[in-house]
């Protein structure tokens, strides 16, 4: 099931900087509400991608509550993180995008509005 998740760049590395944090491979459980939310988010990402990728959008930009910066996620990384969250209770460690072009990414709110607009337009045909 995890075959579609990006590989941990430090997997099998004896000098893994996260090794000092302790064992991180033990699955954690999500509450049923958290699991439902992650499943809904995954479905949303699939719809966003199907409508926005043909328009040249590479993924989403999300505000990080921990560091206060914006993080750019391509569609596959978003999908992989959500699958990992659903399957193991936490997102996979990943490398952030290197110098992403912000014009190729949209916010979650923009993507939601775009989908709503397409849905409304198709409903009036």
Count of individual beta strands: 3
The percentage helix is 40-55%
Low-pLDDT regions: none
Helix and strand pattern: HEEHEH
What radius of gyration results from the CA coordinates? Answer: 16 Å
Query: Strand arrangement, largest sheet?
Result: 2-1-3
Given helix and strand content, the structural type is alpha+beta
Instruction: Give a short account of the largest sheet.
Output: 3 strands, mixed
Shape: globular
Number of helices: 3
Through-space gap between termini: 40 Å
| Percentage beta strand | 5-15%
Averaged pLDDT, please? Answer: 83
Short description:
This protein has 125 residues and is of the alpha+beta class.
Question: What does the secondary structure layout of this molecule look like, with pairings?
Answer:
Elements: H1 32-52, E1 59-63, E2 70-74, H2 75-88, E3 105-107, H3 108-123
Parallel strand pairs: 1-3
Antiparallel strand pairs: 1-2
Helix pairs in contact: 1-2, 1-3
Biased composition (Basic and acidic residues): 1-10
Organism: Streptosporangium algeriense
Region (Disordered): 1-35
Task: List its traits.
125 residues; alpha+beta; three-stranded mixed β-sheet; 3 strands; DUF5319; DUF5319 family protein
Describe what you observe in this structure:
The protein is of the alpha+beta class. Helix content is 41%, strand content 10%. It is built from 3 helices and 3 strands. A 3-stranded mixed β-sheet has the order 2-1-3. β1 and β2 form a beta hairpin. α1 (32-52) runs antiparallel to α2 and α1 crosses α3 (108-123). The longest helix is centred in the middle third of the chain and has 21 residues, at 32-52. The N and C termini lie far apart (40 Å). The mean pLDDT is 83.
């Amino acid at each position: 099931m995890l075959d579609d998740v990006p590989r941990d760049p430090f997997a099998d590395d004896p000098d893994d900087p996260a090794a000092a944090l302790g064992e991180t491979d033990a699955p954690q459980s999500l509450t049923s509400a958290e699991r439902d939310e992650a499943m809904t988010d995954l479905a949303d990402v699939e719809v966003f991608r199907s409508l926005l990728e043909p328009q040249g959008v590479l993924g989403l930009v999300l505000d990080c509550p921990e560091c206060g910066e914006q993080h750019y996620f391509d569609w596959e990384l978003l999908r992989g993180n959500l699958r990992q969250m659903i399957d193991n209770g936490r997102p996979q460690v990943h490398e952030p995008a290197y110098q992403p072009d912000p014009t190729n990414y949209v916010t979650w709110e923009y993507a939601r509005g775009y989908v709503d607009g397409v849905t409304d337009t198709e409903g009036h045909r």
